[in-house]
Amino acid sequence: QKEVEQNSGPLSVPEGAIASLNCTYSDRGSQSFFWYRQYSGKSPELIMSIYSNGDKEDGRFTAQLNKASQYVSLLIRDSQPSDSATYLCAVNGGATNKLIFGTGTLLAVQP
Amino acid sequence: DVKVTQSSRYLVKRTGEKVFLECVQDMDHENMFWYRQDPGLGLRLIYFSYDVKMKEKGDIPEGYSVSREKKERFSLILESASTNQTSMYLCASSFVSAGDTIYFGEGSWLTVV
User: Fold this and answer.
1) B105: distance to nearest CA of chain A, Å?
2) According to the model, what pLDDT value does residue B42 have?
3) Mutant choice from B33, B102, B108, B109 vs A, greatest count of A C-beta within 10 A
4) Does A103 reach chain B within 8 Å, measured CB to CB?
5) Cα-flanking dihedrals φ and ψ of residue B91, to 5°?
6) Per-residue pLDDT of chain B (113 residues; tens, 9 = 90+)
7) How many angstroms separate the CA atoms of B79 and B20, rounded?
8) Of B48, B98, B101, the CB nearest to A46
């Protein structure tokens, strides 16, 4: 089992819809969770971090964490074509104390 | 704003050459990292450093070494480049806490021919 798993996609949503990106992790001791966005040919940039169970909202983005289910998600409301990118889930803490990345989900927002 | 600068963006090297990738950060971060990113494999940690002259192996250290002589600078060295080291290399830095965000440089695209 991979330490951090994401569906590779592509996830295709129409402009204005809600995009839902999901991530599961295996280390139950993990403490910190991050979502990065990566445009093609560019480096990852941080969108959200979340550390406790529940929802965290920042503009059109909402991160959701459920430690009991070892599940973290990212919702993007009112999706725009400029949101088209690969979204990387990263998990830190736990046994290794290293940041572990998923392989990313490719999001395509259709105009 | 955090600035992580990778001096070489695009390099083409020959098999067997020694390759240096340089990274500098301006936020006084204790931790620095080198990742490589390949299609379908995601980001994989090569080495990281939590202090000057300190280093630890990541998940794929074979064929690489690192140097951290100053806090702000972390170098990745390919002692004898091989074609399977063709990849995008990403440097990153963070403060010492495991919960702190890591910030990435713009990436170095290395092609070994």
Assistant:
1) 7
2) 86
3) B102
4) yes
5) -95, 150
6) 768 999 889 999 999 999 999 999 999 999 999 999 998 888 999 999 988 989 999 989 999 999 999 999 999 999 999 999 999 999 999 887 656 788 999 999 999 99
7) 9
8) B101
- pLDDT tens-place string over residues A45-80: 999 999 999 999 999 999 999 999 999 999 999 999
Mapping DSSP to helix (H, G, I), strand (E, B) and coil, where does residue B83 land?
helix
pLDDT tops 70 at residue A93: no
Q: Which residues of B22-47 are buried (b: 16+ CB within 10 A; e: fewer)?
A: bbbbeeebbbbbbbbbeeeebbbbbb
Buried/exposed A71-106: b ≥16 CB within 10 Å, e otherwise: ebbbbbeebeeebbbbbbbbbbbbebebbbbbbbbb
User: What span, in angstroms and rounded, lies between the C-alpha atoms of A50 and B100?
Assistant: 11
- CA B107, CA B88: separation in Å to the nearest integer? 6
Residue with tokens 């806490």: B97
HSE toward the beta carbon, residue B77, CA cutoff 13 A = 6
Strands B108-112 and B10-13: parallel
With contacts defined as CB-CB under 8 Å, which chain A residues touch B43? Answer: 44, 88, 101
pLDDT bucket at A96, cuts 50 / 70 / 90: low
